[in-house]
């Protein structure tokens, strides 16, 4: 008689036949840095996540490296006065992110640094591109993204991750990198990025007060799946080394489809709202924190993800070590 329960009867037999496993090298840890004189500043909507000073970011980078985390993703929280209509702080060679990259690389050279390429932390309206007459203009934004990429790479970033969803930006950035001798810089494109309610806490984290309108003219419609395949195909053809699907859990079907279709390294971002949802449920006593975190991360592996950007990264790295 077929008794599938035979294999489930003990921990050792379950481990023996486990089809997927979560490993610390699957984890990319997003951190928020600020330019204020405060070591750590809690983020109200992201329990357990703080905005860090540069010194504190370097300390965390060391701890992450010692835990076996391979890559940090850096996000800036800028002073209000640096957010302008032309987003010029994004292309400042001595801006926050290039400075953080230099600080981390000088003390922790063996951790990978991933930087976001998009203008939302730097614009006064919170959109990812330049806003002209009520529209996000594509090609002028791409020119800014190129400059933003170069200042971040010159600061020491290893992976650039355009999250802006402008058309043609991967090709333009790849050409600019080649032309300036940065042949080895990796591009992880936010290729299938959906216009999502789940980014709410992130906007609080980077200090976007009131976004005017929504991002639906550049981020994808959650109704679509074929479109994700087209977006990924374009970004690979333009020179992306790795692609990303975002958000995570509500788009597991897209993670699976992209990884099966393209056989390129496919990453997934368990975004702020997914993290906040688990934290809130745990706070109410509705579920177990560690089991919920590990189960969601394993689901991404099962769907075919090569790795996961997650705010749980440091905690889970500690769990995996024990
Ligand atoms: C923006 C960007 C966003 C996130 C990463 N880069 C938000 C957005 O597009 O509005 C979201 C990350 C998260 O929610 O955890 N360029």
Automatic annotation (TrEMBL):
It catalyses: 2 5-aminolevulinate = porphobilinogen + 2 H2O + H(+). The keyword Endoplasmic reticulum does not apply. Keywords: Heme biosynthesis, Lyase, Magnesium, Metal-binding, Porphyrin biosynthesis. One of its GO terms (biological process) is protoporphyrinogen IX biosynthetic process. Mg(2+) binds at residue 231. One of its GO terms (molecular function) is zinc ion binding. Its EC number is 4.2.1.24. Coiled coil: none annotated. Belongs to the ALAD family. This is Delta-aminolevulinic acid dehydratase. It comes from Asticcacaulis biprosthecium C19. The lineage of its organism: Bacteria, Pseudomonadati, Pseudomonadota, Alphaproteobacteria, Caulobacterales.
């Amino acid at each position: 008689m077929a008794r599938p329960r035979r294999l489930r009867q003990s921990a050792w037999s379950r481990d023996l036949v486990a089809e997927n496993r979560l490993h610390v090298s699957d984890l990319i840890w997003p951190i928020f840095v600020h330019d204020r004189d405060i070591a750590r500043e809690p983020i109200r909507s992201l329990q357990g996540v703080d905005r860090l000073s540069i010194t504190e970011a370097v300390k965390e980078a060391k701890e992450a490296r010692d835990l076996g985390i391979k890559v940090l993703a850096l996000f800036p929280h800028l002073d209000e006065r640096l957010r302008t209509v032309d987003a010029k702080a994004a292309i400042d060679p001595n801006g926050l992110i290039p400075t953080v990259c230099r600080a981390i690389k000088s003390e922790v050279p063996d951790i990978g640094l991933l930087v976001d390429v998009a203008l939302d932390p730097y614009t006064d309206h919170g959109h990812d591109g330049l806003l002209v007459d009520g529209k996000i203009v594509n090609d002028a934004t791409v020119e800014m993204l190129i400059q933003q990429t170069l200042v971040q790479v010159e600061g020491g970033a290893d992976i650039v991750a355009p999250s802006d969803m402008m058309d043609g930006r991967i090709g333009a950035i790849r050409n600019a990198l080649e032309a300036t001798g940065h042949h080895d810089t990796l591009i992880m494109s936010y290729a299938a990025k959906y216009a999502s309610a789940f980014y709410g806490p992130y906007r609080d984290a980077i200090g976007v007060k009131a976004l005017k309108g929504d991002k639906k003219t550049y981020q994808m419609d959650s109704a679509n799946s074929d479109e994700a395949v087209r977006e990924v195909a374009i970004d690979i053809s333009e020179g992306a080394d790795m692609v990303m699907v975002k958000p995570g859990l509500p788009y597991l079907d897209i993670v699976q489809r992209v990884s099966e279709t393209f056989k390129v390294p496919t990453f997934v971002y368990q975004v702020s709202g997914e993290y906040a949802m688990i934290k809130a449920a745990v706070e109410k006593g509705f579920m177990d924190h560690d089991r919920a975190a590990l189960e969601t991360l394993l689901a991404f592996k099962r769907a075919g993800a090569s790795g996961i950007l997650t705010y749980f990264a440091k905690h889970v790295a500690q769990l995996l070590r024990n």
